[in-house]
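Subject: sequence -> structure tokens, single chain

Hey, anyone have a minute? Need the predicted structure for the following. Not urgent.
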Amino acid sequence: PGFLFSKPAIDTKDSYVLNNDFWNFGNKLLFSNNADQLVLWGRLVIIFLVILLGVYVFKWANELFGMKAGIFALFLFVFIPTVIGHAQLISTDVGLAVFFFISSYYFWKSLKQNKPKHKIIAGIFMGMALGSKFSGVLLVPLFILLAFLFLNQENNRNLSKKLHNFARVILPVFVIGFLILWAIYFFPKDLSFYSSGLNLRYAEDANSDYPAYLNGNFKIGGWLYYFLEGFAIKTPIPFLIFLLWSLTLFKKHRITLLDNMCLLTPVVFLVVFTSLSAHNLGVRYLIPIYPFLAVYSSGIINLAGKKTQLAILAPLSIWYVFSSISAHPNQLAYFNEFVGGSDNGYKYLDDSNIEWGQDLKRMAEYQKDYPDTKVIYSWKNSSPEYYEINSFMMAGDSGWWRELSGRYAVNTLLLIRMQLLSEQRDDPGLNWLALYEPIDRIGQSFFVYEF
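Reply:
Had a minute. Here:
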């Protein structure tokens, strides 16, 4: 929509295009036009998708546990800081979460009711999930497993009949999903287009030597428990309590084994797959599990009596809302009380867990009050100059940290990574987090120092 209404200038013969340098081409396209306008249109699409996801969170919980649970599930979902933080960004993580969840919902409906329309819609959203991000491919083994478990409940021992029923459940969804995916790729003649991209994507990941960061330590290849810890410290504690409470009472939920499997198996798939294969860059990779967990946690509303609701549910809900709202407008960098709140988040995680260039406008406003502030920045694919930030320099080997005078604003990711550089280069002067106390913070993206 932004391109239709904004009509940005595009040079298709740009050297970046000819050299397949799409990062720099996108950067030039964005910031040589009205970047705010283009970004706004893209963000509106993501916001609409998150609203749609909220509708389906309510629908699924309502159908499983009733109206009160549907409202409670929606309440849990809309106050998740990680979802709020990324719902305003143009990235693939939220799109995958939306399409993955809705496809799973309709596949569950198709198993329960065996209506063709549910299979068709499940296939449509499956294709969109596959097209939004490569990890959408998890829907393939997930649906196969769920169909197998569902059909295994039947008393029919005839193998050919079981295979026929299995194909009847799976094939329509997969065929429609592939057709949608094929259309997204503009109907390429080479039908291996998706597997080729998938192999290329994960081959690049496997060869990465980028050092991951966790709890103040750096490690190439990262940690298997990175995402589990990230989930535990970036999810509000009341939400975790609601989830654990619901899991301990799973036998009392008046839902079937299939219902449980359709809600919890996707979570297990996503967590295991992400932990084994994804770079340790951000809990955003786990955004798709939140709607499933919100629906499952909502079941406790029917198991808690009025006294329990007043004594436990109400205080936890108030804490939950306060925890989320008090993080505004820094929900992207939210951390819970387990680590002392968001101000301590940089001690545990970095990258998109804390800052993604989201505070450049605030940095520009800060510099109006303190015009002599020198801005040291490390995100290559953004443009501080566009926001009229002055005295700006990209982090590099210019030795800017050796002769210090005046006020400096340094982005958080760079400060974290300077700890590693300090060790590698045997240069203690690089480790600002250990050497100096900041005099100010701009969101969670910049530390401000005075010399």
